[in-house]
Amino acid sequence: MDTQSSQPSISAKASLIAGASLALGLLFDYFFYEKAPGIGFPIYVGLILVGLFVISVYFKKRVDKQALWLLIPLAFFSSMVFVRSSILLTFLNIVGSFLLLLLIVEVSPVRALKRFLAEDYIKIIFLPLQFIRPFFQTVASIFKFREAGGKPRVSSQVIKGVVMALPVLLAFLLLFSSADLIFQKYLLNLIHISIDPRIVFRSILVLCATSGLMGAYAYAFSKKEEAAVSGETKDKLRTVGQIETSILLGAVNALFLVFILVQLTYLFGGEGNIASQGFTYAEYARKGFFELIAVAVISFLLVLATEKYTAKKDTEHTLIFKTLSTALTVQVMLIMASAFKRLLLYEEAYGFTTLRLYSHAFIIFLAIIFVLLLYKIFKDKRENLFVFRAFISIILFLATINLLNPDAFIARRNIERLKTTEELDVYYLSRLSDDALPETIKILNIPNEDLRKSFARELYWRTQDHVALFSRWQSSNISRMNADRILKSKIAELEQSKDYQP
User: Fold this and answer.
1) How far is residue 41's CA from residue 24's CA, in Å, rounded to a whole number?
2) Residue 476 and residue 403: Cα distance in Å, rounded?
3) Which residue did the predictor score with more confidence, 142 or 357?
4) Mean pLDDT of 246-269
5) What is the mean pLDDT of the segment spanning 172-191?
6) Partners of 353 in the beta sheet?
7) Which conformational region is residue 288 in: left (phi greater than 0), alpha (psi within -120 to 50 degrees), or beta?
8) 2 pairs with which residues across the strands?
9) Chain-centroid distance, C-alpha 232
10) In this structure, what are the phi and psi dihedrals at residue 381, rounded to the nearest 5 degrees?
11) Cβ–Cβ < 8 Å for 88, 362
């Protein structure tokens, strides 16, 4: 944030932050309590940003331009909560939006996004812990009254102590009363007030949201006492010698090579070679997928660590390190191809699922990160730019998943697979989110009468559950609205055709 002249008083700043945070805390309850994520989520994110910009204007501090660029992916991911209804995808969009909000709070002229290192992105996850001190400072500033000599008045100190103690005491009281029925009885007899537990829970929810936002706003606009130190100016950590690294990477390369030869002989060599070992092709293919993914992830961390800590010749890596790291990366790519092949064979035998699709996508994403790491080793040694490119890749990866519409893709591929296998897991497809309904509804048009009736029954029970949680306007969602329209139309047709029996 850029500091301007003529700042308002500290107490006025704190009061504005507290007022905005309390309003957003109450709106948090209004938008999300007993409501599924929908249109309320992007609206609430927008209100948080409005609060950020209002406070920045009042504080006469400009929001940094880097933070403004982050508004683009934030707007996209928060809006996709309104568009998509897949549970996993909605979770990823919400988490992505939350992390982008934290990045907006963190970036400033001295903490340029392009200068972030890997540990800086990891620290973002724990950034809310740094909101605790600004929160208490803000509470203290609201009641900041001083005597003529500059010393704080006793009354103001008492008020601050009470305000800080109340939420802590309330939290402990709720925990103790929940843990011990006798303590709960004594507490209720003491206060002689009948309180609906839901009201207590919602009050705690509002309090937590308000406290978190107060801390975040205060942190974003507080003066940094220490300028951040970029990766280029940090003291270099102790490096590892070339001999140790060469032995490590050489041994791993040798092991990987043996494994790849086995893959080329059996997995890629045809069903006959596998049958000679007493296995069916499906049995062989379905084993080891997640183990191979774990190998790929560990290998990436290995190459990343050795690249960072291996002693360099001047500023360049030695030829032997470049050769061994490249060989290891190429072999990991082949191992990931093996995992990809296994998953394809498994899907051919048993169909597509959410986990299998996301696993496929993760393999492709990991391959891209490996390419970026090789580029760092050979071309651009700066760690901060490698991490920034990886960050951009993550954003593009999640955006692509949203545009793909995973549940609809899974439904479409499974229905297409029906033509060759004559098998369809109707129960699983009926449990996919509303994103998939425009595709799964096509099951009612297939020739197989048993599958049609089975899906019709599942469709009926789905309509019975498709209420309550999604009935509020805050939970409005394009996918759910489209599904409701399709369901009403199809149910009317089914009632005429008697294709299901409730």
Assistant:
1) 12
2) 20
3) 357
4) 75
5) 56
6) none
7) left
8) 62
9) 29
10) -80, -10
11) no
For 137, 216, 323, 408, the CA distances from 142, given in Å and listed in that order, are 9, 16, 62, 52
- Residue 222: both structure tokens together: 């507080």
For residue 418, what pLDDT band results from cuts at 50, 70 and 90?
confident
Cα(first)–Cα(last) distance of the chain, in Å? 61
Question: Given the structure tokens 């800086």, which residue do they identify?
Answer: 120
Which of 24-33, 134-143, 197-206, 423-432 is modeled with the greatest confidence? 24-33
Classify residue 152 by its DSSP letter: B
**Who's near 175: CB < 8 A, 6+ residues apart?**
none
The set of residues, in sequence order, having a beta carbon less than 8 Å from that of 156 and lying 6+ positions away, is 143, 144, 145, 146
Contacting residues for 87 by C-beta, under 8 A, at least 6 apart: 433
Amino acid letter for position 30? Y
DSSP structural state of residue 2: E
d(CA 499, CA 302): 58
pTM for this model (two decimals) = 0.68
State how far the Cα of 35 lies from the Cα of 29, in Å rounded to an integer: 10
Output the six-digit token pair for 316: 């360049």
Q: Return mean pLDDT, the chain.
A: 76
